[in-house]
Write a structure and sequence with these properties.
By secondary structure, the chain is mainly alpha-helical. It is 75% helix and 0% strand. It is rod-shaped and about 95 Å long. Mean pLDDT is 89; it is low at 258-263.
């Protein structure tokens, strides 16, 4: 699916999905009813209604297969963001063990990382353009600063070690969210799901081809179910894009200074 569709407001996305589904349904209805004459009509009526059940089950399996991938990606994205936020919060707390300029520098670097993540990385992740090869400068600088600190007591030694570990965790969590940002239901899966839906609609039209009212009702109901399923998956397809997406709010709550940064 194209990025423009993922980035539509939910209402407009619903209008596009339902409109396209009903349009395809109307075309299938017109073709089948138009062909349902003479010998073809008898062939259509010979199609057993019992085949609708296995076709429906197959469509349900395709929906479940795509939906499970989407839910898993969303959970992974949320986990990565909250893990990064937790690690950054730990760094801020541990920095208090080095009062004065070291603590202030570390807080500034963490704040800058959060602001850059919210304003630069999030739009790139939404467009699948975020790169793992680019190491965030503020976190790299914070790591160098933490390693260069000279502890004066046992407590500061522990704090320095834990701070370095927390920064490593933050870097790893950032890598994970960038990896997840590239995930989405691929074209092959979407094609299989939609082809299965078309087969089901065509079968419904053939089975009830002698009763146009029944065809319209049955196809309309199934088309509505298809549209709802596609909309639900599409709205959650890319974890960091669209109206329903993972936001940087958890990161922005680490420091009050970064809370007002734009998403």
């Amino acid at each position: 699916m194209n990025d423009w569709l993922h980035n539509l407001p939910l209402v407009w996305m619903a209008l596009v999905v339902f409109g396209a589904t009903y349009l395809v349904t109307a075309v299938i209805y017109g073709v089948v009813i138009g062909l349902a004459a003479g010998e073809r009509a008898r062939a259509f009526k010979a199609v057993s209604p019992s085949m609708l059940a296995p076709l429906g089950i197959l469509f349900g399996l395709f929906i479940a297969f795509a939906a499970s991938e989407v839910w898993n990606d969303t959970d992974r994205a949320n986990t990565a963001v909250f893990r990064e936020a937790s690690a950054l919060r730990a760094v801020v707390i541990l920095a208090a063990s080095f009062p004065g300029e070291p603590e202030a520098q570390i807080r500034r670097l963490i704040q800058r990382h959060i602001e850059e993540a919210a304003t630069q990385e999030w739009p790139k992740m939404a467009q699948h353009r975020a790169k793992l090869t680019i190491i965030p400068g503020p976190l790299a600088a914070a790591m160098r600063l933490a390693l260069a600190l000279t502890p004066s007591n046992r407590g500061q030694e522990i704090a320095q070690r834990e701070m370095v570990t927390a920064l490593e965790n933050a870097l790893d969590a950032r890598r994970q969210r960038i990896i997840v940002s590239r995930s989405q239901v691929n074209l092959t899966k979407w094609t299989c799901l939609l082809v299965q839906a078309i087969c089901m609609l065509a079968a419904i039209a053939m089975v009830h081809s002698d009763n146009r009212g029944a065809v319209a009702i049955a196809m309309g109901l199934f088309a509505s179910g298809v549209a709802v399923s596609v909309l639900l998956i599409l709205a959650h397809d890319t974890p960091f894009a669209g109206t329903i997406s993972v936001s940087p709010a958890a990161l922005q709550q680490v420091l009050p200074e970064s809370a007002a940064s734009p998403n």
